Every structure is written in C-alpha cells, then in structure tokens.
C-alpha cells in the first residue's frame, strides 16, 4: 500500500493514505561521519533485540511475570494484554532493525509504547506485586526510573530526538 511512489495512487485510501503520505514525507536524517551514526545503529539494534527477546518472553516462559505488571484496575484480561503486548514488542523490535529508512517514525512509536506501558510499572510498585526479582518496594520504585531511560534510548538511537529538536519531525505531508 505505501510502497507506491505515486502519491495519487494513495489518494483514495483515507486515513491509511494519510499515514503513508506522512511516512513518505519524513526525511531521513543526514548520516554523520563522526561515529554518532554508528553508535545510534548499534543502540538501535540492541534495543530491537531486547524488544524481540522481551516479546518472546511475553509469549512463553515469562508470561506470568509480565501478567504481574498488568494493573489490577485494567479492564482487559491480563493474559490477553500480555500476549498482545508481546506481539507488539516483537513487531517493534523487528521494525527497529529492519525499517531503517523509517527509523525516526519507528523510534517515536517505540518511545510512545514505553510511555503507554509505564502505568503497569507504577501499578507493580503501588500494588506491591513481585515479578522479575522486584520483591521489595524499594526495588520496584527504582525500576520506575529506568522507563524514561528506555524512552530516551528509543528517541536517540533512531534519530527521533534530533528530528524533534531540529524541527524536521513531524513533517507535513507534501501536497
């Protein structure tokens, strides 16, 4: 759907066409020769691998640990939330590695995902739920400070942070 370079072929696609036009309008960040681009690539691959690893854990051996992070007040079945978030994490991890041309967009989505799951970390702390070796309130509280690190990591490793600061993201769709 988005592969067509002809924007007129996407005109009748409604919201999907608008997303395609937005993706097509976001310029790639300029490659840098000072090693920053290489560092970002390595960080992007590490984060992508970590997301795939965590996503597989959601679907297999660590399912009950991840269920502990689903807030008690959340209206959807814990197992369904864990399975869905595992699939999303695998997709985001693969996207970080495979969709290099769209890394700024992917990085923004990954950062938003980390923000979206943060209430689960807060619930684990406030509800006193043990999981992943976080068996004290102090450990669960310290864990909260790692989520912003993940958000910054996603934005930096993909160049999204630079795009936000330089005013090139979001880029309005071309007419």
List keywords for this structure.
single chain, 175 residues, mainly alpha, 64% helix, disordered N terminus
Structural notes for this entry:
- With 175 residues, the protein is mainly α.
- It has 2 domains: 1-30, no CATH class; 32-166, no CATH class.
- 64% of the residues lie in helices and 0% in strands.
- It has helices spanning 15-25, 36-59, 63-67, 78-98, 103-126, 137-144, 146-157, 160-166.
- Helix 2 packs antiparallel against helix 4, helix 2 (36-59) crosses helix 7 and helix 5 packs antiparallel against helix 6.
- The longest helix is centred in the N-terminal third of the chain and has 24 residues, at 36-59.
- It starts with 14 loop residues before the first helix and ends in a 9-residue tail after the last helix.
- Residues 3-10 and 22-30 have low confidence and may be disordered.
Q: What's the average pLDDT? A: 80
In what range is the share of β-strand residues?
Answer: under 5%
Number of contiguous helices:
8
Helical content band: 55-70%
String of helices and strands: HHHHHHHH
Shape: globular
């Amino acid at each position: 759907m988005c592969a067509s370079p002809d924007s007129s072929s996407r005109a009748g696609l409604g919201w999907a066409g608008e997303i395609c036009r937005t993706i097509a309008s976001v310029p790639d960040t300029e490659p840098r020769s000072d090693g920053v681009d290489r560092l970002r690539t390595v960080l992007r691959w590490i984060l992508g691998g970590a997301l795939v690893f965590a996503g597989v854990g959601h679907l297999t051996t660590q399912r009950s640990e991840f269920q502990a992070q689903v807030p008690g007040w959340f209206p959807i079945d814990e197992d369904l939330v864990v399975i869905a978030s595992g699939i999303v994490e695998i997709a985001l991890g693969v996207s970080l590695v495979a969709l290099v041309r769209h890394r700024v967009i992917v990085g923004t989505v990954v950062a938003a995902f980390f923000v979206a799951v943060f209430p689960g970390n807060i619930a684990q702390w406030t509800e006193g739920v043990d999981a992943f070796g976080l068996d004290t309130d102090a450990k669960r509280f310290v864990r909260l400070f790692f989520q912003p690190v993940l958000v910054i990591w996603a934005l930096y490793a993909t160049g999204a942070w630079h795009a936000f600061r330089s005013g090139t993201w979001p880029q309005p769709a071309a007419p």
